[in-house]
Amino acid sequence: MWVLRLTKAGPRRTGAAGSLAIAVGGLASGALPAREPWGLWTPYGHGVTVAAAVLAYAGLTLLVLSWWAYGRQFVEKKATGPGEAGGARDVLVTLGWWAAPLVLAPPLFSADVYSYIAQGAMVLEGHDVYAHGPSALGPGSLGADAAASVGGNWTDTPAPYGPVFLLLAKGVTWATGGVIVPAVFGMRLIAVAALVLIAWSVRHLAVECGVGEDRALWLAALNPLLLTHVVGGMHNDGLMIGLMLTGVVCALRGRWLLGSAVVALAMMIKSPAAVALLFIGVIVIRDTGRGRSLVLRAAKGVLGPGLIAATVAAATTVLSGTGFGWLHTQSVAATVHTPLSLTSDLGLAAGHAARLLLGEVDPAAVKSLAQTLGLAAALAVIAFLAYRSLRGRLHPVYGLGLSLLALVALSPMVQPWYLLWGMATVAAATASGNSRVVRILMVLSAALVYETQPSGHTPPYGFALAAVAAATAVTALPRCP
């Protein structure tokens, strides 16, 4: 019933009010820095912090309900077809309303931005970011305040990011002198640019796939999970997604060389974007003339995108001066246990059970084996989806989206915002509310926003709130076509 009332009240206005409540609540309950010389984001007493967190959660709930109501509002009327911009413009205006309050807020739902700033300072000062964590920065360095604000698990963790992102972080640190407030807003400008790139690419992919632009934008860009974690939390996953999808747009329009290069830039943000190269290869093989040799078509599709991407990756690495250490740090995040990783949870449980039954069994070794098997299973699923796309049974964009979702589901480390990797791609290929995959993504989006506090911590009650949100969303699905 709340959804019906919100529809009458105007989801655009109520969603903006929700975003504003999140931003205001975040002033006291957000991921505030340990030290901040300007005195704008300083800790408050327990009572104020709790009240601010309640306000932020209330705003988050209002935002989720508004997003759900907005979806109902436009899917019940006659759907706009590909190329019809009226509905898409309305979604983009709403996106601006909802994102604006979060742009001016302190870091929300994650403290990762402090790692980004500290790593930028490390590059600027000549430290090896692939050998040391932010703790390598001395008290008098540019990124000292940011390093002091990094979460405990990541203080000594080398950077798992590519050189392109580290260069961007270096530029922000240099331009702001590493001062927390302007440096955070510098990183948020990158996050906003990522949001714009995602919206642009999803809209154009929807046209290429014959999907209504408004529906695709609603699921992919207007999604509260994206707003809270890309705009609010400034996760670099947003930039990876935007560049990756832009590369796919180029490939679908026959410019696969450019598309492969852009995907390579996305890989130099975060490595999962490499999956897109496989599906660009599928696009190349399918688009190459049927009269040509199958071997030549396959060679062009398999080797071409890979060689272009390897060249771009090598060139950016050499020009950045950060070295090729990123090739060895892709697995560092897996050393931190995240409860959302199915393979890690099952492996750890199996390891403890084996120790109880058999005695001298190392649970960590069993967990590592489960993680490896999970990644192997993910690769098998990706290969199967690529084959189906090559045979014409799946659109390559949809195959890419499902592949990224499979990779997340079977990854050794899973964070709530990782769902965004495949969601934007799936949204562009099939945003119909009658799609089972889309319905699952809707439920997960409504639930996973509650998994982390505005401060970035993951409390036990976050999973309880997520479960309640998921159950509520499932009951509302029949009323949202």
Keywords summarizing the entry:
481 residues; mainly alpha
Outline the structure in words.
- The chain is mainly α.
- The protein has helices at 2-9, 11-29, 46-75, 85-103, 112-125, 144-148, 163-176, 180-209, 213-220, 224-232, 237-252, 256-267, 275-287, 294-320, 342-358, 363-390, 396-409, 420-429, 436-448, 460-476.
Summarize the structure.
It contains 20 helices and no strands. It has helices spanning 2-9, 11-29, 46-75, 85-103, 112-125, 144-148, 163-176, 180-209, 213-220, 224-232, 237-252, 256-267, 275-287, 294-320, 342-358, 363-390, 396-409, 420-429, 436-448, 460-476.
Structural topology:
Blueprint: H1 2-9, H2 11-29, H3 46-75, H4 85-103, H5 112-125, H6 144-148, H7 163-176, H8 180-209, H9 213-220, H10 224-232, H11 237-252, H12 256-267, H13 275-287, H14 294-320, H15 342-358, H16 363-390, H17 396-409, H18 420-429, H19 436-448, H20 460-476
Helix pairs in contact: 1-3, 2-3, 2-4, 3-9, 4-9, 4-10, 5-7, 5-8, 7-8, 8-9, 8-11, 8-18, 9-18, 11-12, 11-13, 11-18, 12-13, 12-14, 13-14, 13-16, 13-17, 15-16, 16-17, 17-18, 19-20
Structural class: mainly alpha
Main pleated-sheet profile? none
Show unreliable segments: 78-85
**Radius of gyration (Å):** 22 Å
Number of discrete helical segments: 20
Measured between the Cα atoms of the first and last residue, the distance is 16 Å
Mean pLDDT: 88
Number of strands: 0
Spell the H/E element sequence: HHHHHHHHHHHHHHHHHHHH
Shape: globular
Provide the helix percentage: 55-70%
Percentage of β-strand residues: under 5%
Oligomer: single chain
